[in-house]
Amino acid sequence: MTTLTLNQFIAGLESIPATTSWYLSEISESKGRQELYTKQSPQRLNSLKEHALIESAVSSNRIEGVEVEQKRIGTVIFGKSLLSDRSEEEVRGYREALNLIHTLGSKLPVTEETCRKLHLLTRGEIWDAGKYKEKDSDIIEKRANGSSSIRFRTVSAKQTPKAMQQLHTAWEDAVKETEMHRVITLAAYNLDFLCIHPFRDGNGRVSRLLVLLQCYHAGIEVGRYISMERLIEQNKERYYETLKLSSQGWHEGKHNPWHYINFLCFIIKSAYKEFEERLGEMSQPKGEKTEMVKNAVAGFPGNFSVADIQKKCPGVGIDTIRRALKDMQHLNIVECVSRGAGAKWQKTGN
Question: Which of 83, 134, 166, 265 has the smallest count of CB within 10 Å of its CB?
């Protein structure tokens, strides 16, 4: 059994590539603005949630070659009618798995039981749904000329239960490791999960659901509003290429996990960017931007400037910020403590 990526990182993560650090910084900034955006109009957020649910269920299955007719998508995702084939069954099952994760969020633990539950939901009535593979199953690469070869030898069926137990022990240890960024933790786990390949079929879909779940555990809730599965599908070639690069040498513990880790960082960053852009494009009710400024001010522990508010409230004009500050000053909520270009403000405590 190889040394898992997670265990290697726990033993000592000496340095993080510059690209990864940049991604993590961008994600942290977006996460900091998350609460401000999610306090906006419930109707607008509900619209995003509905679209994300449809896109996630359709895209994650389509990556694996499972498709349903366009005219049937609404019925399959939201309806209660009888389903016509296995593809529709699997898409609806994915929807049910998404509902479970969105409803429970971080209260749903990342365990072997959860992995099997998600697989059971996404595989429908098939005989081995929710069960680890009984036979060895390698990842086969098919070429344009019709030939094929083994791209990656996954963990054997015999070793899979032990490998999954070790993976979740490593996850628990990594979560306790406060020095490791949680996004790195979830990406390393995801790489290990895909290399173990615990199920006969449906591993990719379960892995993407686990990314969503682990994002909730990290306080990253953008997957509720933007489909990360759709973003992965749109970058499918890059997804497979980075997974291929990062899995080479995995069994010997000589692999480079950063290709795949950076890819998942890119997906999360892109989801946040799209989330903020979509909300910015929608018409905002009167007073909503002012409310965003007030919420931003409430979150500052000490002195702050107009520029600090701008970072927390992208899309809110400087005139709106100054007006809001002036109104709060009249109400003795804030006071100006220094003048000039970088004027500083502070809360009065009232």
Answer: 134
Give domain 5-281's CATH architecture. Orthogonal Bundle (1.10)
- Give alpha helix (H) positions in 110-247: 112-123, 160-176, 182-196, 203-217, 228-234, 236-247
pLDDT at position 103 is 96
288-347 is classed CATH 1.10.10.10 = yes
* Selection from 222, 135, 153 nearest residue 183 by Cα: 222
Q: Please tell me the distance from the alpha carbon of residue 4 to that of residue 132, in angstroms, as a whole number.
A: 19
What are the E-state strand segments in the chain?
Answer: 139-142, 148-152, 334-338, 344-347
Check: CB of residue 174 under 8 Å from CB of residue 188: yes
Model pTM?
A: 0.80
Distance CA 57, CA 95 (A): 6
The whole-angstrom distance between residue 317's C-alpha and the CA centroid of its chain comes to 30
Measured distance CA(152)–CA(137) in Å, rounded: 10
| Amino acid 143: pLDDT | 67
Contact status, residue 36 vs residue 296, Cβ threshold 8 Å? yes
| pLDDT value of residue 40 | 72
Spatial distance between the Cα atoms of 109 and 115, rounded to a whole number of angstroms: 10
Domain map of the chain by residue range? 5-281, 288-347
Spell out, as residue ranges, where the chain has pLDDT lower than 70: 1-2, 84, 141-143, 147-149, 281-286
- Reported as a single tens digit per residue, the pLDDT across 2-29 is 689 999 999 888 789 999 999 999 999 9
End-to-end CA gap in the chain: 60
